Amino acid sequence: MSKSDASIEIRDLYKIFGVAPRDHVDAVRNGMSKADLAKEHGHILGLNNINISMPGGKIQVIMGLSGSGKSTLIRHINRLIEPTSGSIMIGGRNVLDMSELELREFRRSSTAMVFQRFGLLPHRTVIDNVTFGLEVRGVDAATARQTGMRWIDRVGLVGFETRYPHELSGGMQQRVGLARALSNDAAILLMDEAYSALDPLIRTDMQTMLLDLQSELNKTIVFITHDLDEALRLGDGIVILRDGSIVQQGDSQQILLKPADDYIRRFVKDVNRGRFLKVDSIMDAVPAAGGKSLSHLKSGTTLEMAAKELTTSSFDTAAVVDGAGRALGQVSLRQITAALSSAANAES
Questions:
Q1: Which pTM value belongs to this model?
Q2: What CA–CA distance (Å, rounded) separates 280 from 266?
Q3: pLDDT tens for residues 252-303?
């Protein structure tokens, strides 16, 4: 599967756990709640009418608290969990229509998973863990080792290839897990709470590494987390789940500036918006030709960084420009301060 074919379309997806789940799909469609389904029929509603379009080559974050259904959802993508109803289209093909043989090959060659608890084989060295998937696919030992060492180098573990997992820190073990996933050259990377067990500083380092790798690899990444800061930093798109249903989906700017309801407002109220809101979201239209000279801010600059730059600049207004230097709009220090002030008032 090529990267261009790695878009994921989830349509009308339901998952009900119990002895006769299909018997209750219509009741859920007609509005039966998770609590009523459990009380009246003894079935558990895992996912309720999930519809998500995940573009190829982007990072899609699925977030929510424990029990929201996020890990259940990611396991539907490679059919580790069978849905009760719905479709999962990847590259235009419904994963649910695949035979057992086709599904096995799809899991081996098109998807890779990185787990919260690393999932390393304790009796295998770092290099042997990294090349495990290649061995399963029948790649010859020399080629597998060459590929494995390349990814060990990319994740910063050269010199540790003969160590065993118990000799590594948690962050290093997660780097091994990431190298193993990347060595398969799968177009789709599924990351289930991959960094949740790590200390904050190591977690930040791993996020930075992932973003750096993604800027080059452009994989389709589905990233599960319960941490909003992590979601805002990593996600090209963000879906927030609650009790198996989608509460809101959009990019970081939409989530922060237009929370769908009080549940989302509680999620975002303690976020440092200056770190995530971008000048593009508050800028005015491009100024008329012949206007005064301005400082320049790159599109995508956060309000926090923009405020610092304008505070030390001889101008209090900046043109927002794209990568080619073309003006997209303009923003003033007053606008930035007002946006940060309104965010602070919203949190208090």
A1: 0.89
A2: 24
A3: 999 998 999 999 998 888 888 899 999 999 999 876 554 455 788 999 999 9
Range of the domain at 311: 274-347
Sheet with 8-17, side-by-side order of all strands: 44-54, 8-17, 85-90, 93-94
Q: Which parts of the chain are beta strand (E)?
A: 8-17, 44-54, 59-63, 85-90, 93-94, 111-115, 188-192, 220-225, 237-242, 245-250, 295-298, 317-321, 327-332
Q: Please report whether residue 22 resides in a domain.
A: yes
Name residue 50's beta-bridge partners: 13
Query: Could you give the maximum distance between any two Cα atoms of the chain, in Å?
Result: 72
Side chain identity, residue 149: M
Residues 210 and 224 in one domain: yes
Alpha-carbon distance 77 to 90, whole Å?
9
DSSP 284: B
Q: What is the pLDDT of residues 203-260, one digit of tens each?
A: 999 999 999 999 999 999 999 999 999 999 999 999 999 999 999 999 999 999 899 9
The backbone region for 240, taken as left when phi is positive above 0, alpha when psi lies in -120 to 50, beta otherwise, is beta
The count of structural domains within the chain is 2
Two structure tokens written together for 154: 């990319």
With beta carbons less than 8 A apart as the criterion, state whether 13 and 81 touch. no
- DSSP 8-state secondary structure symbol assigned to residue 4: G
Final residue of a structural domain among 271, 299, 318: 271
Q: Is 150 inside a domain boundary?
A: no
In which order are the strands placed within the sheet that holds 220-225?
111-115, 188-192, 220-225, 59-63, 237-242, 245-250
Residue 264 · residue 255 · CB < 8 Å: yes
264 with 320, same domain?
no
Structure tokens at 326: 């073309």
Residue 76 and residue 207 in one domain: yes
Gap between the Cα atoms of 35 and 39, Å rounded = 6
β-pair partners for 9: 53, 89
Distance CA 192, CA 174 (A): 12
Q: What is the CATH number of the domain that holds 15?
A: 3.40.50.300
